[in-house]
Amino acid sequence: MKLLFVDNTPSMGGSVHHLAGQVRGLAARGHEMRVIASRPDFYDGILPAGVPVSTLSWPGFSNVFENAPEIFHARFPGVLGAPFSALAYKKFSAKVRPDFARIIREFKPDLIHLNNLNLPNKAFADEAEAQKIPLVVSALMIRLFSRRELELVRQSRLVTCISQAVATQLARFVSDLPKERLAVVESALDPSNYAAPRDPAVREEFGIPADARLVLSLGRLTPWKGHDVLVDALDGIPDVWFLQAGGEELVYRTDIDRKVQKAGLTGRAIFAGVRSDVPRLLGAADVLVHSSKYADPKDGVVEAFGRVIIEGMAAGLPVVATDAGGATEILEGSGAGMLVPPGDVDAMHVAVRAYLDDPEAAERAGEAGRRAAAERFAEAPLAAKLEHLYRNIIAA
User: Fold this and answer.
1) Considering only CA atoms, which of 159, 121, 123 is closest in space to residue 140?
2) Are 243 and 285 a contacting pair, CB within 8 Å?
3) Residue 58: exposed, middle, or buried by beta-carbon count in 10 A (0-12, 13-18, 19+)?
4) Which residues pair with 340 in a beta bridge?
5) Are residues 248 and 319 in the same domain?
6) Domain range for 371
7) pTM recorded for the entire structure
8) What DSSP assignment string belongs to 250-313?
9) Which end of the chain is more exposed for a tag (fewer CB within 10 A), N or C?
10) Are residues 360 and 385 in the same domain?
């Protein structure tokens, strides 16, 4: 099959690795693919050789997505409302569709797969529909969607949901959507990439003592990820160090720095920024914590999956995560970690300390995680599932 993927992710994170895992698995099965990405650099070194990655452009912009936020979120609160949103979409669509149409004509894909359920991708869906190319959309978030975004669901031949929690939410929002138009396709990884032995150089790089108890958090430093809850939970744990890797929102980082000082973690909390060596970081830690703090999209973004959880499992780390969204599906019954109520500082404190204080329990959870990651989230079987779904769509 010839498959065209579109990704407009604005920052490095799980959605990029989700698509990369799918492409790697499908490439191993012999399919020809092309990726159009808002940030092609995110895919450097994580896609197979021979899979081209490019972006789109219009005069004055090297990347059509550079000004998409400005187009779709103009600063006219309460003035233009929905009419302006419609005009913004038409403006963006008029710019992006001609170049996308050209790529479709040149590549002649059997199927187009959009990696994000969001408003800018509506333009690509409209062009796929105009050229009668079967369309698949990935739903990777649990949040409140706009009416126009939900139109994208209806346009698609299939929506691949990263967890059952996502599928359940979409079925509720689009109540008349046939069940067969939703399929759960989790994120995938290559477990062998996480099998490296501990590397003492990681702790040496950050000045972390070899015998320190290290708690790791992976993911963008943003309010819904709940790092404030995690820092509060570490207060009072003896000899604990905290390492966070991922991009950050500066205002929230300022709030976190204040909490670090209050928790007595000054000098023992390290913010490493975006890293390309996640397996090495995992190998240096004692516990992985995933602290997303919302269970209801009315309150904020809910963790749809939590790819870092399966990365921690593959690396043999015990995991503490909040009991909401996709995290529940990953950990429940796996023996790989503990689930705590979202936003519950005390429960998270107890769970983290339980693993730090009991190395044997931590080791048992880590081994269970390795097994579960290999059995449930390996790239090859998930790529076979996706291939089967694609073939059914094309043949219909």
Assistant:
1) 159
2) yes
3) middle
4) 322
5) yes
6) 191-376
7) 0.87
8) HHHHHHHHHHHHHTT-TTTEEE--S-S-HHHHHHH-SEEEE----SSTTTS-B-S--HHHHHHH
9) C
10) no
With H, G, I as helix, E, B as strand and everything else as coil, classify residue 334. Answer: coil
* CATH number, domain containing residue 39: 3.40.50.2000
214 within 8 A of 286, measured Cβ to Cβ: yes
DSSP state of 132: T
Tens-level pLDDT at each residue, the chain (396 residues): 999 999 988 778 888 999 999 999 999 999 999 999 988 999 999 999 999 998 886 555 555 555 555 555 544 344 334 444 667 677 778 888 898 999 999 999 999 999 999 888 898 999 999 999 999 999 999 998 888 889 999 999 999 999 999 999 999 989 888 999 999 999 999 999 998 778 889 999 999 999 999 999 999 999 999 999 999 999 999 999 999 999 888 899 999 999 999 999 999 999 999 898 999 999 999 999 999 999 998 899 899 999 999 999 999 999 999 999 999 999 999 999 999 999 999 999 999 999 999 999 999 999 999 999 999 999 999 999 999 999 999 998
Residues 6+ apart with CB under 8 A from 56: 36, 63, 64, 96, 99, 100, 103
Judge contact between 186 and 382, C-beta under 8 A.
yes
Q: How many domains does the chain have?
A: 2
Nearest to 136 by CA among 307, 386, 327: 386
